[in-house]
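Technical appendix A lists one of the benchmark inputs used to test multi-chain prediction within the project. The record comprises two sequence entries:
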Amino acid sequence: MQLKKSLHAKKTTPVKKPLQGKKPLHVKKPKSISGALATATCALLGTHLPHPAAASEPFKNWEYDSALLYYSEQDRVTAVEPVISARNDMGNDQFLNFKFVVDALSGASANGAVPADKTQTFSGPSGQKSYSVAPNETPLDPTFEDTRFAANVLWEKPTSRYLKALLGANFSTETDYTSLGVSATFTYDANNKNTTLSAGASFSHDTVSPIGGAPDPFTEVPTSSTSGGENEGDDDGEGGEGEGGETKNVTDLLFGVTQVLSRHTLTQFNYSIGQSSGYLTDPYKLLTVVDPVTGDLVPAVDPNNTYRYLHERRPDSRTRQSVYWKTNHQFTDDVVYLTYRYYWDDWDVKSHTVDLRYRYELGRHHYLQPHARYYQQTAANFYRYYLVDGEPLPQYASADYRLGDMTTTTFGLLYGAELGKNSEFTFRAEYMKQSNQGYPADAIGKLRDYNLSPDVKAIILQASYNVKF
Amino acid sequence: MDTPQLIPQLTPQLQFSEDYCIGRFNAMASPCEVLMDTQDPVLAGQLAGIAQREALRVEHKLSRYRQDNIIHKINHAQGAAVKVDEETAQMLDYAAQCYALSDGRFDITSGVLREAWTFDGSDRIPAPARIKKILSRIGWHKVHWRPPKIRMPKDMQIDLGGIGKEYSVDHTVLLLREAAAISCLVNFGGDIATTGPRRNGNGWIIGIETPDASPATLNANTKVYELQHGGLATSGDARRYLLKDGVRYSHILDPRTGWPVQGAPRSVTVIAGTCTEAGIMATLAMLHGDQAEAFLDQQGVKYWTIRA
């Protein structure tokens, strides 16, 4: 503090003639020399010395992270996602983090219908663009295109020596979806900082405004632009617009403990429980109604439509729980990161995720990090490949492959290079293969010949650059 | 700097503690260490190397036992002017200001008193006449210092050892701060400074030994201080003293009299904005003898003194 003040003071210290005593002098009343001494020390060590001053100058020390992610599924969705985040050291161990994400998605995604030996025609979500699917092909909706913007801000503030608060807010928007959320997490250091306890809560309120209005569950899907546009517009335009879109509330609680096991090993255990309620249905997913014997498409009830497809229906609440365990261990140079997560919810989806990364130091500030991930999921209890004509409708049904049995394996490699003292560049390439249960044992008739949920393969490329000012 | 370390270890020894890393080496006749708030062995090795090189550089430059440095050149100029480099010039400027601010108590020309005084616990008190003779060769005001040239009478000597170690601690802190954005604590033989608070927001915990504390009693007799910013230095007479006729002569010599200061504390530890300031404050406090605490109170610095 003294240094900071004296930094701007002029370096004028009068050189006084010293006392030339020959015998022990009578000690005079001491005087304060600390200010002049601080000035002199500043001159000795250079003016950029006083670091405490930097702490009191907020919005000066920034760290930026930028990344560009490219995700491309074979024959399906392609996403380009630039991310920019900034972290500001406000001093006094307070940090302000900002993050902006743009997600540009385009391509085709499975609409839930099963393949058939006939050409199938669907109207797009807008009710205007329609698309046809050739015989024996998996119906993919090629009109899928959206851009999402997301922003979030996080404030880290120590409230005492041991307690830290992290308060966040986030917002994201895309054509038919808006999300607003807040979060608060508290961490408590115990046991001489070898143990950190954390507890957090987050809440988000989402609004879904499907193009053309939210369709009523289990109603027939229009299959041509003329029929669909009118039909859907009449049915849902009023309902959807009148309510200003469907809403969904998501609440999550997280409890965690992080423990330093040794000077090279750290482990973390989290438990989280979350509840989603409201509109959880995907307005663009549908189910094919098939003939109970042949597995063929059945004619639509509405004469304007070709075949009978129904909008899906999901429960309006979902309770999710998960346990997560992470261990980092450092060898002499290299570091291994291992995580395991077990997830379960009241839709009967259960999943295991094992993720392994190994940071291999190449020396000279370069490293390679191989990555392997294994994910295995069981289907939601209302997941089905199709509905059967003549059978009573189940309470809920969805043919969204993301709710089906699934195994995903990912292999990748990351290369990182520290460029100078304050910046780092990384490049990541990964290959992901999602294997679904495409040939259910109880498939009806000719559906036995089709893969009802083909594998999805994707490549992921990401370049990122981090710089500190 | 009493016993030069001529063959230093080439690389610092690294030791990993719970959540930081310690690099150790010897320099300036003292055990030196750097505590780094990282577990990254590569980074820790680099930072400890920076600290070691800096300590050895300053030792090499300021040691009065070497014959190839600027101090030797100045001390053996036989009355001729010597042009000094910028860093030495800054240190001489600093010494000049400390001389003025301390009314002559801090004097880099006082080293020749060592010819008469040897603080080995014995009773060999020099004759007053001898001290008187040596005093004629002491006094910064007799030195002609016009930066960048210094000229002094041929029988005089300067010794920057009184600020060299503290200076190298602060200079190391500057270098570490430039090299990485992690918190480090630099400790060269008890002269300490930090680059700033640690990741967890805390400072570094420093045990301040009492003069008689042994490692076994460290916990009982140690004061603990958490250093978040700035520096800390200790000046003490430790076991360096003379004892004659029941009078203890501390090794703190007043350059104005040539005799030990009376009534000085056994040790003074000061916290200040930099290690260099803390070191000067502690030295000056000792030179104030029984007025040490009064002097320190006047400076408004945090300090501890120990009196036997």
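The longest strand of chain B covers residues 21-27. Chain B touches chain A through 66 residues (CB under 8 Å). Comparable benchmark entries are summarised in Table A2.
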